[in-house]
Amino acid sequence: MTADLLAPLDLAFWNIESAEHPMHLGALGIFSAHSPAAGAHAADLLAARAAGVPGLRMRIRDVWQPLPSALRRPLAFGGAAREADPDFDPLNHVRLHAPTADFHTVAGRLMERPLERDRPPWEAHVLPGEDGVCFAVLFKFHHALADGLRALTLAAGVMDPMDLPAPRPRPAEAPRGLVPDVRDLPGMMRGALSDMSRALDIGASVARSSLDVRSTPALTCEPSGTRRTAGVALDLDDVHRVRKTVGGTVNDVLIAVVAGALRRWLDERGDGSEGVAPRALIPVSKRRPRTAYPQGNRLSGYLIRLPVDDPDPLARLASVRDAMDRNKDAGPNRGAGAVALLADHVPALAHRLGGPLVGQAARLWFDLLVTSVPLPSLGLKLGGHPLTAVFPFAPLAPGHSLAVAVSTYRGSVHYGLVADGEAVPDLDLFATSLSKEVATLIKACRS
């Protein structure tokens, strides 16, 4: 497998990271176990199968291109590339831990540890349950190696075989000469000017959409470097029941549930919800349907105000629905959420030099990440042990105290929560609030 230059947004994620602010995503899968030895068997299987998944061999290295290449691709100068690690050893990435009664407590400690950057940036941690009837696997992938969809593809490669359609091969690039063809220079200049114009257009849109933003103190903090995780599973039929009653999409309901849970959580912990309307970033995939080789991140986003201060659950849902409809009408290239698209128009060297500053600016841009992670509807197994629940974990941006990821699997909605361990010691209270908010919405729909 040859070296592959990182896409601009992947490069941004790679350079934003620091030891205190790791930029990996994760997923905690819970499996039913047939015996107390199931966890150890799962660890052996993961290590054996990882050796046969080419994408798991990929490490990331800095790239300083020679002058001819830099002339040809100036935006990539000073970038990074994925390449196969010749010293790849799956045993360095798959770890078996001692039995535990609390998967999320262990997962939180593991999520706060950065991935090693000098080898393929992923890990699988197997956590046997003390009761012997279940075990968990925490997968960690750096966001520069894989976004949610790509991480799912890589994780599926180490699960029990499934009958899935084979991916389409990437089209091969035409060979290029050492020096750009003179006939190509006008087109290259037009492309560069088009990139500049596009960046200015997006930047202006972001600026206009951000003029009135203010941070929500309860959702921002001075980073401690610690992490807590929690998860809650809801019945997908309950979500559909609400959607069918009031309209909108499943995603509208899931976002409104977060808004209502925040209200309940803030009131119960004594912070109060009056006047609180945090800015939620809702990532939007820009990848074309049926893309066969989902290597690089292709993301934009919608930015909406969560109506936490509204006491009426149905009014909160209507507000979320209206905000999402306005974002969809404007498209993912407009609004403050489109700032991720600027990565495509920024030289790689600027990502390298300005990454830390961009990361620190996250709290000025949004207060809370609420992201959806796709999962297959088919049941997954590892060593014959069924996957019964899976909680996705999003990266926690510098200065943020909470991030929310959500996925649907086998008739359930799984919320995965990641928080700064010191700023949010009561993360379980927020998880409980999510369940209570669904019950509140159902009751409101019946009345």
TrEMBL record:
Keywords: Acyltransferase, Glycerol metabolism, Lipid biosynthesis, Lipid metabolism, Transferase. One of its GO terms (biological process) is response to hypoxia. Residues 6-253 form the O-acyltransferase WSD1-like N-terminal domain. InterPro entries: Acyl_transf_WS/DGAT, O-acyltransferase_WSD1-like, O-acyltransferase_WSD1_C, O-acyltransferase_WSD1_N. The keyword Acyltransferase applies. Residues 296-437 form the O-acyltransferase WSD1 C-terminal domain. It catalyses: an acyl-CoA + a 1,2-diacyl-sn-glycerol = a triacyl-sn-glycerol + CoA. Its EC number is 2.3.1.20. Pfam families: WS_DGAT_C, WS_DGAT_cat. Pathway: Glycerolipid metabolism; triacylglycerol biosynthesis; Lipid metabolism. Coiled coil: none annotated. GO terms for molecular function: diacylglycerol O-acyltransferase activity. One of its GO terms (cellular component) is plasma membrane. Belongs to the long-chain O-acyltransferase family. This is Diacylglycerol O-acyltransferase.
